[in-house]
């Protein structure tokens, strides 16, 4: 947002932290690193804990609690040995309290607790040789006693900046927070009984106990909702900005009819609905931005193919981009004959085309003779020119960066407007992730699988039964089946994991007496694709792989999936892996091997594997996976692309997120210019969180 557009009322919050009392040149960089450059950032630094100080005497001191003692300083004991702590003996009427400092200068400590003076000391009580001691106590002069809160917020600290110093700075910043106009809907706010914004901020920094730190404390909920609402507003605005970009009007035509007739199956209800949603967008004259979510095997390709045919039928060109050579070829082999039969000239573009193959294809695209291009990254290279590109379809969209998508979309013709975008993902994600990550996209979901699938039988076994597994596997392979065998990557050392996978491949080769392919993440791409292709074409019956089994590769003959150390995978990941089988008519099996013997199985791992045994519905599994992670897997969340929220926890605040998303869309629909009084307040909120310049679009 432009600086000049920031509402004046927010100026005190957007002042630099250096304007606060107590932030000098030494502390400034520390505060900036810990909280951020602005007064707002310091105020948005939520306490991470709370300490309750209890008045105690040496006689009744309780170990493990934080005590507060009024003592007389007796003497300072400076150690002879370097590295030993400096000790101060102090006492009250009931006995001694020893104060201990590791490091720090004797001079400084002497000034803090001068001999013969009274001090109030506070800290965690420990006992050593039956003596009360406090390591690194907080020290106060008796006349400061009134300032010592019995309950104090604890802040994240950093080297050189203690929690207490942070607390002081936050307290100094609080008076700078103005009363802001209310941006929440009055009825909603009354129902939730939340405090106003400024009061919530005050409560955030004055917890009365542990419960006030919980995500469901009223002040925390209020601030979380504000944050989520501001973020959803930013996404909703982006969505609107896209919608007002004119784009070609694409309508189904004869080519679409002929393609539909050529499909060897009838569309499922979910496919029919998805194509209807896509067609509504394509016909609107506004630029489509849609995510098609559906499990592996749910039939996304047929939906995409119809959209490609629609574009061609309306006189435009369309591109379908896949992340790997093998996927692009698979799409081309399946779709090109049907599209050609429907009168749509289709070309393949990959990085491996020879110049002689490439030249006529590029010419056909530039002239408009070819209506559909299917390919890899080769599609968005500068040498590729379209005559009238109207639609870009991106398969396995998470494998592409925002730039790559934009480079393809930029190949549109400015005279016909923006290029419609359809992205596809085989990783069902929970609603919450959908909203935080793809909030500016519209979403279609394929919740139903094509008929005629035999469900995959899933069994959970200890690794100790691997001999049995090998025997059954041999029988199946002898009968013409194909199988995957997955060896997980364990974070400790990639090299040793690789060695384990290689050793496993060698074992299986020996025991089973068959060709065994090995694919892993450290292989150069083309080499790995060659191994995958051998498996896809049935030349190798067994493929040992680390987790890199190409997403989206369709090997209908593969009917067995063995996953070693299944307990080390996440639920969604296991589901993805299992989705490699059960694609043909043969009954399929997934064997989840866990543990190395009597290790047993942890509770979460047990629930995960049990969920997998119970259901094959990717959306259900995604929600469950998300729930199981609880708030406790920040790393996992970040990997899933969550924005860096300060107050909101998308798992614990799931319902708030859903409500905030609804409200954001509603507010902008009713009052697009935010001109109403509530709209004006909403603008203040937007400026307060400043999400607008955050992560651009899909990634
Ligand atoms: P996805 O890309 O969603 O993983 P695909 O589009 O590759 O799935 O479809 C998986 C398989 O299901 C393909 O072999 C496809 O021909 C088949 N298929 C798709 N839709 C249907 C349908 N409605 N009825 C029967 N089979 C279908
Ligand atoms: Mg696919």
From TrEMBL:
Alphabetical UniProt keywords: ATP-binding, DNA damage, DNA repair, DNA-binding, Helicase, Hydrolase, Nucleotide-binding
Domain of life: Bacteria
Organism: Brevundimonas viscosa
GO annotation, biological process: DNA repair
Residue ranges of domain Helicase C-terminal in the record: 468-627
Annotated ranges, domain Helicase ATP-binding: 281-446
PANTHER family linked: ATP-DEPENDENT DNA HELICASE HOMOLOG RECG, CHLOROPLASTIC
NCBIfam families registered for this protein in UniProt: PRK10917.1-2
GO MF term set: ATP binding; DNA binding; DNA helicase activity; hydrolase activity
Name of the molecule in the record: ATP-dependent DNA helicase RecG
Pfam family, one: RecG_dom3_C
């Amino acid at each position: 947002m432009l600086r000049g557009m920031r509402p004046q009322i927010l100026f005190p919050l957007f002042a630099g932290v250096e304007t606060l009392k107590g932030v000098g040149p030494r502390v400034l960089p520390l505060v900036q690193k810990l909280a951020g450059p602005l007064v707002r950032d310091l105020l948005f630094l939520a306490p991470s804990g709370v300490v309750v100080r209890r008045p105690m005497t040496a006689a009744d001191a309780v170990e493990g609690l934080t005590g507060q003692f009024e003592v007389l300083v007796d003497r300072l004991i400076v150690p002879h040995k370097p590295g030993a702590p400096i000790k101060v003996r102090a006492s009250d009427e009931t006995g001694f309290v020893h104060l201990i400092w590791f490091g720090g200068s004797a001079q400084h400590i002497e000034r803090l607790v001068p001999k013969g003076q009274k001090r109030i000391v506070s800290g965690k009580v420990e006992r050593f040789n039956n003596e009360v001691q406090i390591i690194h106590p907080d020290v106060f002069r008796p006349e400061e006693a009134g300032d010592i809160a019995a309950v104090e917020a604890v802040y994240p600290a950093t080297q050189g900046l203690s929690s207490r110093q942070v607390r002081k700075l936050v307290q100094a910043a609080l008076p700078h927070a103005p009363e802001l106009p209310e941006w929440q809907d009055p009825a909603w706010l009354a129902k939730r009984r939340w405090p106003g914004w400024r009061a919530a901020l005050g409560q955030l920094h004055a917890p009365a106990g542990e419960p006030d730190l919980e995500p469901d404390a009223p002040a925390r909920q209020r601030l979380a909702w504000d944050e989520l609402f501001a973020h959803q507003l930013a996404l909703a605005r982006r969505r609107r900005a896209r919608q007002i970009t004119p784009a070609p009007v694409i309508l189904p035509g004869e080519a679409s009819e002929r393609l539909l007739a050529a499909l060897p199956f009838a569309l499922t209800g979910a496919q029919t609905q998805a194509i209807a949603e896509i067609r509504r967008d394509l016909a609107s004259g506004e630029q489509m931005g849609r995510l098609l979510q559906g499990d592996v095997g749910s039939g996304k390709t047929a939906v995409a193919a119809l959209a490609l045919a629609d574009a061609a039928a309306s006189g435009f060109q369309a591109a379908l981009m896949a992340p790997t050579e093998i996927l692009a070829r698979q799409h081309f082999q399946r779709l090109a004959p049907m599209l050609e039969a429907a009168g749509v000239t289709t070309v393949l573009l990959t990085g491996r085309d020879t110049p002689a193959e490439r030249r006529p294809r590029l010419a056909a695209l530039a002239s408009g003779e070819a209506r559909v291009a299917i390919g890899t990254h080769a599609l968005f290279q500068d040498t590729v020119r379209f005559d009238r590109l109207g639609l870009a379809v991106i398969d396995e969209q998470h494998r592409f960066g925002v730039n790559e998508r934009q480079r393809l979309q930029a190949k549109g013709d400015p005279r016909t407007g923006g290029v419609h975008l359809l992205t596809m993902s085989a990783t069902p994600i929970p609603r919450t992730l959908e909203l935080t990550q793809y909030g500016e996209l519209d979403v279609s979901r394929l919740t139903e699988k094509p008929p005629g699938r035999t469900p995959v039988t899933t069994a959970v076994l200890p690794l100790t039964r691997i001999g049995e597994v090998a025997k059954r596997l041999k029988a199946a392979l002898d009968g013409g089946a194909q199988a995957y065998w997955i060896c997980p990557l364990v974070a400790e050392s990639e090299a040793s994991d690789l060695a384990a996978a290689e050793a496993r491949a060698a074992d299986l080769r020996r025991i089973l007496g068959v060709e065994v392919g090995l694919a892993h993440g450290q292989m150069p791409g083309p080499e790995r694709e060659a191994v995958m292709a051998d498996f896809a074409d049935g030349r190798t019956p067994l493929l040992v792989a680390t987790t890199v089994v190409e997403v989206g590769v369709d090997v209908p003959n593969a009917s067995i999936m063995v996953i070693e150390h299944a307990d080390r995978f996440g639920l969604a990941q296991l589901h993805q892996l299992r989705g490699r089988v059960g694609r043909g008519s043969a009954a399929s099996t997934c064997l989840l091997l866990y543990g190395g013997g009597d290790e047993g199985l942890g509770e979460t791992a047990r629930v995960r594997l049990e969920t997998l045994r119970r259901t094959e519905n990717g959306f259900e599994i995604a929600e469950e996976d998300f729930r199981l992670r609880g708030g406790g897997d920040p790393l996992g969340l970040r990997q899933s692309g969550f924005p860096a929220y300060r107050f909101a926890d998308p798992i614990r605040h799931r319902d708030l997120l859903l409500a905030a998303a609804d409200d954001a869309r509603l507010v902008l629909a009713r009052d697009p210019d935010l001109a109403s009084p509530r709209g004006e307040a909403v603008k203040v909120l937007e400026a307060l969180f400043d999400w607008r310049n955050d992560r651009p679009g899909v990634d």
